[in-house]
Amino acid sequence: MTIFHPIYTWKTKTFENYRIKELHKPLFINGKCKHERKSVMEIRDYTKNELNTLWEEYRRISNPQTYKVDLSENLWNLKAQMIDSKKSV
After folding, report:
1. What is the DSSP string of 21-68?
2. Contact 59, 51 (CB under 8 A)
3. Which residues are within 8 A (CB) of 45 and not within 5 positions of it... i.e. 6 or more apart?
4. Out of 14, 49, 75, 86, which residue is the most buried by the measure of CB atoms under 10 Å away?
């Protein structure tokens, strides 16, 4: 997967060993909740586990490192399509 900086598009980085996780899931479909309800403790445990996947530089309270996020070509195109669809409204 190759990603690039959204402003400085010539800045790229290619990954060969990575994990993909679906982040965009619908919560409601046709007015019905499609999301499994979780207890506060389950949410806490999930959050702790996810935070532990980040390096310490990003998790520290004092002077944390900025977490850089670049875009894949597919995500860049999706973003552009969403913006364009709102321009015509």
Report:
1. ------SEETTEE-S----HHHHHHHHHHHHTTS-HHHH-SSSPPP--
2. yes
3. none
4. 75
Counted domains in the chain: 1
Domain presence at residue 23: no
The structure tokens listed for 87 are 């321009």
Whether residue 4 is contained in a domain is answered as: yes
Q: 70 in helix, strand or coil?
A: coil
79: containing domain: 1-18+49-89
Which tens digits make up the pLDDT trace of 21-47? Answer: 887 788 889 999 888 889 999 999 999
- Token pair belonging to 49: 């586990």
pTM: 0.55
Query: Per the structure block, which two tokens stand in for 61?
Result: 């309270």
Task: Identify the residue whose tokens are 């850089």.
Answer: 68
46 Cβ neighbours under 8 A, 6+ residues apart: 38
